[in-house]
Structures are given as structure tokens and as C-alpha cells.
Amino acid sequence: MYKSSARVLCVERYARWLSSSIRNGTSATPPIGSNELNNDSDRANARSAADVEGVANRLSAASPARKSRDNRRRITEFKDALNLGPSFADFVSGKASGMILDPLEKARQNTEEAKKLPRWLKVPIPKGTNYHKLKGDVKELKLSTVCEEARCPNIGECWGGKDKSKATATIMLLGDTCTRGCRFCSVKTNRAPSKPDPMEPENTAEAIKRWGLGYVVLTTVDRDDLIDGGANHLAETVRKIKQKAPKTLVETLSGDFRGDLKMVDIMAQCGLDVYAHNLETVEALTPHVRDRRATYRQSLSVLERAKMTVPTLLTKTSIMLGLGETDEQIIQTMRDLRDIECDVVTFGQYMRPTKRHMKVVEYVRPEKFDYWKEKALEMGFLYCASGPLVRSSYKAGEAFIENVLNKRNKN
Hints:
Its EC number is 2.8.1.8. Its cofactor is [4Fe-4S] cluster. The protein is α/β, with parallel strands linked by helices. It has helices at residues 2-24, 40-60, 64-84, 88-93, 103-116, 129-140, 146-149, 155-159, 200-211, 231-244, 261-268, 286-289, 296-309, 327-339, 366-378, 395-410; strands at 144-145, 170-173, 177-178, 188-189, 215-220, 249-253, 274-276, 314-321, 344-349, 383-386. Strand 6, helix 11 (261-268) and strand 7 form a beta-alpha-beta unit. Helix 11 packs across helix 13 (296-309). The chain is globular.
């Protein structure tokens, strides 16, 4: 017992001597008793302990600036882990333990997920002078865009055009936090978001004037916490844009205002050019895809009321494919839309934002999207944008709508 304790003390003394020699760059005489370390195992243990102590000393001597950078990096990594990690429901159900992954495992899974994507869904990294200009202005004026918040795959194409008048930005008003929780959407959710910024209508109009855009889309998160659902705030923004940039055509993509059709009237009469409200999916899948407060029939009533209030308004909606819908259900949805005289419909592929969102049932092939475009035009829609990467504010559709509206204005 005594010999064992003495040997441990010798190992510790020898480790401290090694650590001091490494730190000071000297070769002092080994401590008394180190000659008792006459086997490789003891000396290896001592060297290992010295290495650990040396690393600890170097870390403790790190500069305050480096420590601050490391802390910020850890906080960012922690936030990212929370966003991509398990939800509260996962903890309640006991599924969380299998979802908490170390960074290397997460990177491996993300790489595998990317490999599974069909080639027609892969897009280049956004770049270009105009892209960075719009991104900078959005940040400077404290605006939110659905292009960024919803991780739209077309952001590089819409923001990166050389001709600013051809670029399109979809600005998200009333903050970046939604009061609803649809299973397909990556926008943040909260029951009590921050109050609307009273300067947002003015700042938005100023941004549109700077950019010189020919067409802009204004969208909002759902604000069920506000009495009017944000209708007056959105309408005021449209009026400000028309004052500062009268030639800019304005589309609004708004919520259902909890079915309050008086709010739809306010929006339809504020001077906008296109009234958009998304059905998102077919009737049978609506309860599984959208928040329970959003219903298929309620959305149809919103589009119908907008057209009734201002018959010259273009009405528009968007439908995601790949959620498990059938061809018959899509046809019926288009019939329902034509019954209320909806003018424009778009079809795009549902893309799963994170592992916390509903899974993709099918990656629909481009030829099938072409088929739905032909069907929509046959049924009398004024225009249909249909493709894997098409979103409700896809700029190719807006170019066509812009021409239609300009012809109407001349007449």
C-alpha cells in the first residue's frame, strides 16, 4: 500500500516537472524520486498529465478578446442547436434523446439529406451586386423578408438580377414572429409577438423607392393577437408605397384575418394591385398541414370577398405539392378556385425546412408541374406558374402579371 502511494506521488511530481519544463523551455534537474519511475507506463502517465496541465495553462492564458469570440461562437452554436433540435412535444413524447446529435453526426445527416434531393431542386449559392445591395438595405432599415425567413430557394434569382427594375423582394411586415404554427413553415412562432413597428410603413416605402422595383410583394405573419389582424398596418404600408413610388405595382400576400371579411375589405380598397392569399394545400390535407385556425373554406371566402369588393383586383393563391395529395384533389381545388373567379395560381414543391417539420411525401417531377400548368390554363386561370422551385411570389409570374396590369392601367 505504502509503495503504491509513493509511486503515485512520484508520478505527480514528475508530471509537474515536465509541465514546468515545457512551459518555461528549460531542462531543470528531475525531482527527487523520479528515478523510481523505472517503467514505461509510469513515465507515459506522467507525460500525459503534463500535457493536460500544459493545455489548461495555455487556455487560461488566452486573451479576453479570444474568450469573448469563443463565448459568442458557443452561444450561436447553442441557438442553432435549439432551432434544429427537438421541440417541446418531442420531449413530452420521449423522442428527444434520439434527436440530440453531436455536430459531426448532424453534419453527416445534413450531407446525406442533400444527396437525396433530386438534381432539379439544387440551386446555386446567392450572389451578385444587387443581391448584396438589397440585403444591406433590408438590414439597415430593420425590415424582414419572407425570402430570408422562409428560406426561399429563389432568393438569389429574385434579388440578384442586374436590372433592379426586374428584381423582386417579398417584404414581411408586422415582425418576423407568427402567432400560428403551420407544420410546413420555418417562420418563428409565439403567442405574443412584439408590437408592430409604427415606422415600418414609412421604412418599407423608402426601401422600395431606393430599389426602384417595378413590382413588390408585401406579406405578413399571422397576428391573431391584434384586433384587426394587422390589416390597417398593411393597408397603410401600401398607401405609403404608392405615394413614394407610384409606378411600383404592389401585391399583398396576407392571412385570413380569422375570417373577418371587414378586414379583407380594408385590404382590397387600400390601392393594391394584386390580392394574394394562399390555400397552401388541398382540402383533405389542410387540417394536417396548416394551423388549426386556418381552414380551407375560410381561405376561399377571403379570396372571394376580395374579388367581390374590387372586381378589377387580380386574386392569386399558391399550392404546395409533394404532401401526399392526389390528382383528383388538385383538380377539385382548381375548380373551387375558378368558382370564386381566382385569377392566378402557382404550384411549387414542398421543401422540408428542418427535421422538426412535416416530411416530404413525394418529390414531384418537373414534367408533372408542366401538366398542372396546362390544366390550370385550360380551366381559365389568367396565369399559372408551376415548377419545383416556384413559390407564391416567384418573379417569373410577376413579370407576366405586371404586363397585364400595365395594359389595364393604360385602358
